[in-house]
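re: ur question from earlier - yeah i can do the single chain one, its not a big deal. heres the input i used so u can compare w yours
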Amino acid sequence: VVVPQSAVSQREGKDYVVLFVDNVVERRAVALGGERGKDILVTSGITGGDIVILNAPSSLQDGDQVKQVNQ
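and the output i got, formated as tokens:
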């Protein structure tokens, strides 16, 4: 799965993305394959149907309630 680099963050040396799942935040560890321009290849941890949150603030925690805003 290829995602924008702004969807990937690091915490304690691990790469992760923040997902939007049924109006709730879910932080998930991922394995990265390499950069492709402004995007990055995620080799495990998410699937093509997952909704990632771009530029997620570090204050977002697992279980936080959020609303989806389409841009």
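The two ends are 20 Å apart (CA to CA). not sure if urs matches, ping me
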